């Protein structure tokens, strides 16, 4: 095309997007308001690559991890670098004020490793403190909702055991983005705007996250020099730069001034825990989760219950399948409310809860034509015989499934001084009932919603994935696995397919289940005929544009060894590979 033709095309395009002399900024997307693709048809192709792949919910963060792989770092290095970028770029969902869980497949030892890098309650956090304030539940925001953030200790122990690059090298891209700025993406801008009122309550939070008094719009450039400074402390001093240095001191000083319960000892004594992942076999695939206090075994319990039915014959859009899915969820979550807690403080019958005989006993409660209500937890002895998610696979097929969270959007809502991040509100997930297995005690881990997952086939990693979104996470994981294994969807279709979410189950905080059996929230892609059939079975169904959660997954083809990546349209993210 002649140069003058190029110029004509250029100015024609510019004329389409110029309004009043200004370039149109991307239209902001409200949190949870992203349009889903045509039901059961994907909006994106599967991403395919031979060497390495990273998937997460912010494109620049995924590229940070991919750059690490290309420069010779392994999957663990890339996961840490990606997570650091996510803490900057999706700050309402995660950050170094939150916790971290991970499952690692180590190619050298051909073994799985589980990491619980969740922090504990302050030593001064007792039930008596809350009783003196006439509180029957722990507040969902503010200083009393704090538990010690475990993320940085998670990075440290992962890097020391499996990493090949230093923390300084891994944090350098995020430090640069924090100082120079990055464009805020559409869905994240919607989340940010939804939290304006929460952040505005606290001066340090507003100063950090509300430039010019408002949440940044989609396309706005956001900088966080205070977070860059906190990252530099970690880069130079390791975990001690966070737990023993300026950051911890500033947090404790802020806590003392604002009726918090933190002491420096809470930070110096923080320690992550290596745990053995637990699994169930579902139709020949081994699905692995982190044991309690996380809720990962709810996924395993649901799969055990569903394995007794021929879902493939029923089909992905059948009311028969979705009814069974909802009933399995209710049964698993009744056990979750009673039994999921810190195993250092309570005896948790994990093996019994995820056993096949226990599932057979519980399955007898399911009626194919009637929804369950008023469900009690089971007796596992009868069966004896919640964020951001990222995944990475490298050239050697090391795999990392990592999830990291502040719990609620912007956590407790509080930025403690000039540190550049909010502190999580994970402490709100304790119960104050002394008889509850998840009751609050000093230096104890609360029940946790964030759950990374990994699936092996014949002893080799097959699928590395996770679903974000609090109580949605086990439900979403089961939906994705059924889509892949039972309904023959690909790695992209499995995450984009319309979802149901059941809300209203009892929780490990002591909050009871709704007496009417709760509510089923159906995404707009769920057919109306299916909704009517579920209502006829006794389910209370409401419509929702999109359900919570955000899915990322990387599948390793067992025949070709190629990597297939999926990243759903409910988030801003992507899978990238080389």
Strand content: 15-25%
Structural class by sheet pairing and helices = alpha+beta
Poorly predicted runs of 5 or more residues: 1-26, 382-386
Bin the helical content: 25-40%
**How would you write the strand order of the largest sheet?**
3-20-19-15-14-11-10
Mean pLDDT: 92
Report, as a whole number of angstroms, the end-to-end distance: 33 Å
Largest sheet: 7 strands, antiparallel
Q: What is the number of helical segments per DSSP (H or I, 4+ residues)?
A: 21
Assign an overall shape.
globular
Give the beta-strand count.
21
Radius of gyration: 23 Å
Describe the structure.
This protein is α+β, with helices and mostly antiparallel strands. It is built from 21 helices and 21 strands. The chain has a 7-stranded antiparallel sheet. A hairpin with a 2-residue loop joins strand 10 (278-282) and strand 11. Helix 14 crosses helix 16 (319-339). The longest helix is centred in the middle third of the chain and has 21 residues, at 319-339. The radius of gyration is 23 Å and the shape is globular.
């Amino acid at each position: 095309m002649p140069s003058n033709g190029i110029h004509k095309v250029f100015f024609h395009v510019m004329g389409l997007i110029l309004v009043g002399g200004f370039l149109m900024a991307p239209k902001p997307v409200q949190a949870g308001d992203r349009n889903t693709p045509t039901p059961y048809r994907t909006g994106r192709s599967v991403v395919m690559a031979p060497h390495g792949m990273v998937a997460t919910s912010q494109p620049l963060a995924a590229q940070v991890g991919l750059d690490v792989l290309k420069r010779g770092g392994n999957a663990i290095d890339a996961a840490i670098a990606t997570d650091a970028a996510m803490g900057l770029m999706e700050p309402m969902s995660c950050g170094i004020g939150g916790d971290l869980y991970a499952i690692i497949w180590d190619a050298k030892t051909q073994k799985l490793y589980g990491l619980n890098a969740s922090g504990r309650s302050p030593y001064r956090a007792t039930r008596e403190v809350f009783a003196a304030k006439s509180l029957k539940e722990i507040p969902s925001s503010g200083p009393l909702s704090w538990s010690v953030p475990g993320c940085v200790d998670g990075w440290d122990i992962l890097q020391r055991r499996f990493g090949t690059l230093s923390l300084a090298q891994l944090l350098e891209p995020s430090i640069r983005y924090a100082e120079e700025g990055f464009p805020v993406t559409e869905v994240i801008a919607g989340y940010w705007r939804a939290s304006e009122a929460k952040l505005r309550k606290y001066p340090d939070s507003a100063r950090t996250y509300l430039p010019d008094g408002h949440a940044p719009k989609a396309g706005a450039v956001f900088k966080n020099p205070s977070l860059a400074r906190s990252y530099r402390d970690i880069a130079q001093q390791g975990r001690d730069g966070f737990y023993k240095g300026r950051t911890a001191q500033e947090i404790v000083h802020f806590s003392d001034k604002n009726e918090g319960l933190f002491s420096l000892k809470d930070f110096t004594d923080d320690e992550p825990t290596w745990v053995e992942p637990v699994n169930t076999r579902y139709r020949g695939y081994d699905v692995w989760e982190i044991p309690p206090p996380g809720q990962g075994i709810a996924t395993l319990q649901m799969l055990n219950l569903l394995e007794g039915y021929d879902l493939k014959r029923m089909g992905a859009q059948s009311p028969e399948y979705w009814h069974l899915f909802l009933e399995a969820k209710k049964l698993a979550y009744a056990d979750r409310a009673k039994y999921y807690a810190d195993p250092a403080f309570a005896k948790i019958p994990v093996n019994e809860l995820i056993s096949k005989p226990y599932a057979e006993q519980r399955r007898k409660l399911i009626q194919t034509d009637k929804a369950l209500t008023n469900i009690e937890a089971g007796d596992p002895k009868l069966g004896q015989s919640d964020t951001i998610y990222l995944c990475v696979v490298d050239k050697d097929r090391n795999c990392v499934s990592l999830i990291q969270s502040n719990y609620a959007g912007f956590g407790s809502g509080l930025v403690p001084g000039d540190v550049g991040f909010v502190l999580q509100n994970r402490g709100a997930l304790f119960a104050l009932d002394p008889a509850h297995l998840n009751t609050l005690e000093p230096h104890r881990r609360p029940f946790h919603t964030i759950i990374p997952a990994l699936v092996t086939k014949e002893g080799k990693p097959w699928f590395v994935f996770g679903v974000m979104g609090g109580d949605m996470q086990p439900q979403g994981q089961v939906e994705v696995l059924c889509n892949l294994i039972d309904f023959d969807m690909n790695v992209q279709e499995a995450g984009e397919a319309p979802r149901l979410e059941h809300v209203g189950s009892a929780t490990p905080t002591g909050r009871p289940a709704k007496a009417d059996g709760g509510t089923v929230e159906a995404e707009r892609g769920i057919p109306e005929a299916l909704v009517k059939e579920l209502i006829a079975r006794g389910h209370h169904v409401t419509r929702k544009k999109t359900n919570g959660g955000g899915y990322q997954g990387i599948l390793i083809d067992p025949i070709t060894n190629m990597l297939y990546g999926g990243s759903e349209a409910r988030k801003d993210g992507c899978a990238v590979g080389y």
